[in-house]
Amino acid sequence: MTGKIIPLYVICSPFRRVGKTLVARLLTEFHVLHDRAVTAFDLADEGPQLTDYLPNLTIPSDIRKILGQMALFDRIIADRDSAKVIDLSHRTFNDFFRVAQEIGFFAEARRHHIEPLVLFIVDVDPKSSAAYGMLRRSLVDASLLPVRNKAELRELPEDNSPARTSITALEIPLLHFPLKVEIDQKAFSFGEFWGLAARDASDELEIELQVWIEHVFYQFQQVERFIGSEPTSMRVGSSSRYPSRAPGREQQRSYVPEGVFKFAPKKQRRAFGMGMTESGTAIIAMLQEAGGELRTAKDRIDQLEIEAQKLERRATRAEAWLQVIKEEIKEKLIEPKLHG
Residue 27 has what pLDDT? Predict the structure, then answer.
């Protein structure tokens, strides 16, 4: 990424449980899928945290003390190679932006070709609109983009300031409850699922999740295109199609390499030369037949692996469902009787 704009995402909200960590996970894995270096910073103080999902990519941070503030801001500026994702706790929301403004952090970041983009998770609470308005007025050296993470939200106040981006908001659609339970599992990886779904996604819920991820990733791509750091290693979009794993017949070669003929013994070279039309064609036909059988066997093995992974995911999903049902029974049936 040297010489290019490096994105710095700050995912925030003054409220808890609005989907900050989910957006941070998606953004981090989006960059991993593009084979781009990315570092995530976890400023949350309640679980499940970003470090629970992506421990190898996430650095726990604490800005309640000056040393923690220095460690975080200095590391972001010093790292010129990787995109940054900050999962900001609702408890440190005010402190983070206050300190950033006092030290001129966002202006300094831009001088080092780091483009700050604040992703604000909007909420129906009136305090959310007030906090969004505060950031819109105070952020001079950082762009601000709302993220709608629920189906129905009160419209944001009309923004009469000059537009800083052509994208009005990021939309994170709702998922059916079984899928929400599945992606909330700490072992779940959007990247691993994306790779598997590209090979085979026949289950109705899997197709829904595949389309959901693609929709979100397409929006991320549009954002990065605007700020000038769009990756080129992978393109996603609502109309994209995954390529076939095996090349077509027109791409397969059907000849014996010249080097094989050149280094064959003289008697065999003469035999090759004399009977190339008949014997050569027969040899090629046998090679193609054997190759076809090998490809068929490999495809069958791949299919069995995919089916095994699908069964494993369904078992995990069922186990999560049972846990949810268990908690519901305990909360609504058992505990009321114990305290009744």
Answer: 96
